[in-house]
Amino acid sequence: MRTHTRHVIAVLVAGLMAMPLAACGGDDEAGTDSFSVGLLLPSKAVPRWEHSDKPLIEKRLKELCSGCTMEYANAENDATRQRQQIDSMITKGVGVLILDAADTKALRSSIQEAKAAGVPVVAYDRLAEGPISGYVSFDGAQVGRLQGEALLKAMGDKANSRTVVMMNGDPTSPNAAWYRRGTLSVLTGKVKIGRSYDTLGWSTENAHTNMSAAIAALGPDRIGGVLAANDAIAAGVISALKQADVRELPPVTGQDADLDAVRRIVKGEQYMTVYKPFKAEADAAAAMAVALGRGEELRDVATTTTDSPTTKDIPSVLLTPREVTVGNIEQTLVKDGVYTIDQICTRELRPACDTAGLTR
Question: Is this model's pTM higher than 0.90 or not?
Answer without folding.
Answer: no
